[in-house]
Amino acid sequence: MCGVSTGSARTRGADHRHEVHDAAANQEQLLEPSHTIESRLAEVICQTPHAMWDAGGVSELVTTKNLRRAGFPFRSGALCLDFVGTIAKRGMGDQELLDSPERLATWLRAAGLPEVLDPISDEQVRTAHALREAIHDLTRATVERQRPSAETVDRINRAALPSPPTATIALDGRTRVPPPPGSVESVMAVVARDAVDLFTGPYGPRIRACQGHDCSLYFVDRSRPGSRRWCTMAACGERASSATYRRRHPRS
Ligand SMILES: [Zn+2]
Fold it and tell me: Residue 87 belongs to what domain range?
């Protein structure tokens, strides 16, 4: 069921988002090749930025083929954890993917967030980095069942305070009017609020660290048994399975 948007290009429907991510994570083909663009759009009318990505005017579903959008990984199942993933290879060289205002703007667009009103400054990039690291610290504390620092929690809470640009309903009562452009702070508040919702919600205890040997991503395990080990089968699960197979069946 669709919920009220906090600023996404599409109505936020948590259930749909979860279904899409799980489907993508499990490499299930979401749509048959014979589907037309119109039918595809009809099927994703209630999905989130995670489920939709506007590529050159054509909205695309998130599938195993486009879990990376604009070069960024989007496979955690949660906006805030995707944001954490903008440092690639954490603990293994730390590759900064948001190393300029332009890259941050690109990530915000790739995430399907509202447009930013003014050019992003270097200072705003640093503030975004600080929010991201706070969410990372909270994620790690959660996974390790530790208490986060007060500073970490305070930073996320403060980032969540601004009102995000919000989608509205047109006078016909059925057409969704996308959110207007907003300040960087108001758009980043969407990410911070996503963290508030995730970590305090039913899936908080289902946040996991991917067990892929060279993957540092976190993800939300929405599998029924709660035993998912990889961010996605396509990215890490299959590699782990093939490595296990090679170990068990070495060529002589
Ligand atoms: Zn992974």
Answer: 14-248
